[in-house]
Amino acid sequence: MIRNVGALVAELKALRKGRGLDAPDLAARVGPGLRSAFALDVDARPDRLREEVAERLRELAGALAPDQRDAVLVVYGLTPESAATRFYKERVTMLATSMERDDRTAGRFIDKVLDLVARAALAPPSAPGDTCEDEAALPWRLTSLRTSVVLNEERPKVYETRRLLLMRDRIDRIDLDLSVPVTPAGVPPGDGFQFHVLHGATLQGEVRRSSTRRGYSLRLPRALPRQSEHEVFLRFTVPGRGAMWPFYVSTPALRCEHFDLRVKFPENLVPERVWRVAGVLPLEVQDPLAARESIEPDANGEVHSTFTGLVPNLSYGVVWSHEPAGRPGAGS
C-alpha cells in the first residue's frame, strides 16, 4: 500500500478538478494510491466507483471538524450546490464565500484539509484491544484525557484525569513527559511552574529534559496486570497569566480515543474570539489560515469541546484571541 502522504494528496488534488466526482473520466483519475488507500474495487463500473469514492470521502470527512468536513464535500461536488458546478474554481469561490475569505485563502485551507484526509486514509485500521508495534513496545498508553483549564485565577491551573491502559504485566511505575512552552515573553518556565499528583499515584521524581519539556516519575498504588486500566488525577499550576500562551492543546505521541477539554476564562477577560482546532500540525496551532472552527464561550465564560480518534503527532484543543476581528494580530 502507498504510504507517502504527499503522493496521495497529489492524487486527491487531481480528483477535484473539473466536475469533481462527476467527471466523465473519473476512472482514469483514480490512481493506484487512491485505489489502495480507499480499498476500491479496481474492476467496478464507473457509477459504482463514483459511489465508493464518495462514500469513503464522506467517511473520512465525517471525522474532521465541521468546517473541514464541509470543505471536502464542496471540493468534490458532494453537496447539492457544488454538484451543479462545472469547474473546481467555482467550488473554491463557493467555499470562500461561506468562509468569508478570498479564494486564495480558501484554496490554502483546502490543501491543508486534503493533507489531513490523506493522513487519515493511510492510518492503519484499529479495533478495540488492537495495538501497533510502537504501542506494544511501551509499558502503557493513554486511552482518554479529561482536562479543565482554569484561567480565572491569578495563577492559572490545569487539572487532568488521564486514563491509562497497561501494556505489560505488573507495572508499578509510569513516566510522564510534559511540554511547557516558552512564555510569550520568550522566557523559559522557571520554578514557578508546579506539578502535583492529586489521586492515583505518588510523585517519585522530576527531571528537566529540555528548556520546555519535563519528565515525571509516578509510583502507582500497586503492581497492575497487563490490559488493566488506571486513572491518575493531576494538577499543573502556571506561574501567572502572562506565562501562558492563548491556546491549550493535546498532541498525543500515540493514538488516543478520547479528549474532553473545558476552558474557564476570567469573567472580565473573556476572549473576543475562540476557535476549536482538531488534527492540525503543532506548529500551525495559532496559524489563522489553519483549519479551525469558531466557538462561543457560554454565559459563565466557559468553552467545552470533545475530540475522538486523535491521530498521533497532530494537535487538538482550543485557541483564543483578545483582539477583535479585523485588528492586526487578531487572526482574521
The chain-level mean pLDDT equals 82
Strand content: 25-35%
Adjacency order of strands in the biggest sheet:
4-7-2-1-9-12
Ends apart, CA distance between termini: 40 Å
State the helicity in percent bands. Answer: 25-40%
Low-confidence stretches: 125-133, 327-332
Q: Can you count the beta strands?
A: 13
- Report the structural category: alpha+beta
State the order of secondary-structure elements, H for helix, E for strand: HHHHHHHHHEEEEEEEEEEEEE
Specify the overall morphology: globular
Sheet having the most strands: 6 strands, mixed
| Count of helix runs | 9
**Compute the gyration radius: what is it?**
22 Å
Keywords:
disordered C terminus; about 325 residues; alpha+beta
Give your account of this protein's structure.
- The protein is α+β, with helices and mostly antiparallel strands and 332 residues long.
- The protein contains 9 helices and 13 strands.
- The strands form 3 sheets. The protein has a 6-stranded mixed β-sheet with strand order 4-7-2-1-9-12, with no helix packed on it.
- A hairpin with a 4-residue loop joins β5 and β6.
- The longest helix has 20 residues.
- The two termini are 40 Å apart.
- The C terminus is likely disordered.
